[in-house]
Each structure stands twice: as structure tokens, then as C-alpha cells.
Amino acid sequence: MDLTPTPSQTVGPYLHLGLTDRQSLSRVADDRAKGERVWLIFRVLDGEGLPVPDAMIELWQADSEGNYAHHDSSADGAGFGGFGRQATAEDGSCTFETIRPGCVAGPGKTVQAPHINVSILGRGILKRLSTRLYFAGEPANAADPILALVPDNRRPTLLAHPDTARTSNWIFDVRLRGEGETVFFDV
Amino acid sequence: MSSSLIQSESNNPEISVVPFRRHEPGTQPDYFYPAYRTTRLRAPSQPLIFLPHTLSEVTGPVFGHSSVHPNDRDLTLQHTGEPLGERIVVSGRVVDGDGHAVSNSLIEIWQANAAGRYAHAKDDHPASLDPNFTGTGRTLTDREGFYSFVTIKPGAYPWRNHDNAWRPAHIHFSLFGPAFVTRLITQMYFPGDPLFAYDPILQSIADERARRRLVSKFDLETTKPEWALGYRFDIVLRGRESTPLER
Fold it and tell me: Which residues, in sequence order, are bridge partners of residue B88?
């Protein structure tokens, strides 16, 4: 048997039918989860700066202690799954409720700053796009080994900013192409 | 949902992470494929930044296990009547790049009905909706990685990408696998479809052998006499590098 991994294809415009209509997950952490409660407001924009109304965003993150609720591990993480997924609305946005993750061990003795692993899928996106959301103003960002791989001038595209009106809301724009294009990672 | 965690204690941050293997060139689609028009506005223009795998990439969610019902794998039983069209059995095995079974892992599928119409508010193709067919299914792979769905063969449909553009009949597949980086969403096609050569979504994969991996095979073994044709669709998720990478 040929063990080359199966190629990806776009989710197409009707992803809701099989995925988010059936099981959408806007709460990554419920009330039992420990940590600072935050709301992440995503907006997906295309190469002309227009909202993408038919994308899907998936999140994967550590808990407030920096632990992942991975499938083959054994500690207890009440109220916390670490995974979220939602379709974007007509204005290209979607909002997740979660807790701010802790620092996660990085390669060697490095420590990764609090971050959310983000996937973007959609019509016109032939394979998943991967990026990371970091929190603006977080001191640990300066020593993050992954941010260090990103050219200075593009690093700001990975920072979510608190809403001035409500600082538990963090705003993160994903620009798929063109001016201010978000950094995407080859994972 | 499992509530178990991987420890990443801050007093001992040296954690060995076994990375997943990277794809061979040409075996996955490019992002920018102008013949597929929407990629011109939605594909990044800057090169991707290579990300060495960390705990964040080699861990992954447990999702959907508690919400899979036995009837979810038979798309012909979800309404009071039988859907119209050609009943089929789609089955196969999910393995990783080393051939090991991917067991107890969620598969979600969705598709058009036999007339080529999705039960979706935004599909305006003037073909019949079928009140007995929604076109969504989900199941878990078994211990050996096997799965099976009963459904209706979907129809081809037009999609306005270019003049007289038609998508070959396909079923969308969504899989998670064990890690953030093993997530796969793809489409399964049917053997011998004359539309393959005209379909930029399939043709966006440069490597012909890789494209063929998306085409299911007619399978007499899983064909049920007097009842339904069988199609086999095996799926390979990314495997790990052979040796742990200590840094």
C-alpha cells in the first residue's frame, strides 16, 4: 500500500452542512475551567480586504497552566477541551469564549508564550491555513521561539489586541492575502 | 470529551517531541492555483514560515466522540423514506504514514444528493432537493482503523468557476487524527469520472499519483448482493519521524 498522505481538498462553500451545523464549538472552556476568561473575536478578510463569509476557524490551545487536553494523556481538566470550531458569519467574523492559555514548553529549554493555534478553512483554500494568535503586551512574547522565526515587520499580524471598550475581548484579523497579510506557518 | 492532559511542567521544560513528517513536494495542492478562481483572493502571497513541531503541533483534540450515533453512518436512514438515487457503501481504512491504524478517530462526511444538490441554503442549483436525504454522516474508526458509510451516490453539479464548469461527483471527508498537524479535510471521487481532467480543484494537486489517491475504487468484496455497490476509500494521515528529535 502506498503510504503517501492523502492530499487535502477545499472544504467548499457547504462546509456547514457536514461540520458546523452539526457540531459547532464556540466555547473552548466552560465555567469550570480555571484562568482568565477571554473572548477571541476573529475576522477573516480576503485579498481585497473584504470579509470572507464562508470560512471555518478551528482553535487548539493549552489550558491556563500550559497543558494540552491531548487524547492520550491522563490528568484532569474539568471544563476544558482546548478545541473550538466555528463558521464565519456574513461579516467574516466569529467569536470564541475561552481562557487565556499558559506558557507551553518549546524546543530545548525555551518557553512558548501564551498562544492559540489557529486553522482557517474555506472555499478557495485548498489546504488548511495555519497561524497562531499571540496576546499583545504579553511579556513572554519577547522570548517566544516561534515568534523569533517571523520577520519583525510581519510579527504584528500574529498579535491579538484588546478591545478598548471591553478588555476581555481580543480582536484578531486574519488577512489571507495582500496588504497586512497574516503570517501563515508550514506545519 | 477526554479530560486528560499532557504535562509540561515549567520546572522541567526539556520535553522531547516527536515531529510529524513533512509532505513530499507536489503531493498536496498549492494554495495559489489560478484556474480555481477563488484562490486568487484567498491564497497567501507570502511564503509560509517553517514551524518546527512543538507540543502545540503534536497534540490534538478529542472531538465528537460523545455525539456519534449508530445511525449517523447510514445516510439513507435519516428520514422517514428512502432517498432517491443509487445506494452505495463507502468503506476503507485510515492509517498513518507508517501504515499503523488510526483508531477511534472521528470522520465527518457531507455531500450533494443524487441530483447534485446540497441541502444547504446557499446552493441554488436548480436540481431537486430530496426530502429523504440530508447528506451528512459521521462515524468513528474502529480499533483497526476501519470505517464504513451507507449513502447515495452524489450527482455532479455546476459551480460557475469558469465557462460550463462542473464538479465531478464527490463526498467531502473531514478527519482529525492524533495531532493538530494531522487534521485533514479532503474529497473522495468516483472511478472513471470524465470530469476529472476539467476540475481545477482536483488538478491543483501536481502529482498524478497523489491525485489518484482521492479516487475511490469499485470494490466487489463490499458490494452487497441485490442491494448496493461498494466503493473503497483508504486514507493516509501524516506519520511521525522515526526517531525522537532531542534538542
Answer: B151, B229
Backbone φ and ψ of B209, nearest 5°: -65, -35
A-contacting residues in B 97-156 (Cβ below 8 Å): 97-99, 108-111, 118-120, 122-123, 134-138
Alpha helices in A34-117 (DSSP H): none
CB-CB contact of A96 with A84 (8 Å): yes
Question: B135 and B74 in contact (C-beta within 8 Å)?
Answer: no
Residues in chain A: 187
The verdict on whether B170 is a catalytic residue reads yes
Question: Residue A184: inside a domain, yes or no?
Answer: no
| Residue B157 annotated in active site | yes
In order along its 187 residues, chain A shows pLDDT tens digits of 789 999 999 999 999 999 999 999 999 999 999 999 999 999 999 999 999 999 999 999 999 999 999 865 544 467 899 999 999 999 999 999 999 999 999 999 999 999 999 999 999 999 999 999 999 999 999 999 999 999 999 999 999 999 999 999 999 999 999 999 999 999 9
Q: Tell me, which fold does domain B39-236 have in CATH?
A: Protocatechuate 3,4-Dioxygenase, subunit A (2.60.130)
Residue with cell 468516483: B190
Give domain status of residue A1, yes or no: no
Please give the residue range of the domain that contains residue A163: 15-175
Give the closest residue to B47 by CA, choosing from A149, A10, A7, A4: A149
Instruction: Confirm or reject contact between A37 and chain B (CB < 8 A).
Output: no
Gap between the Cα atoms of A50 and B33, Å rounded? 20
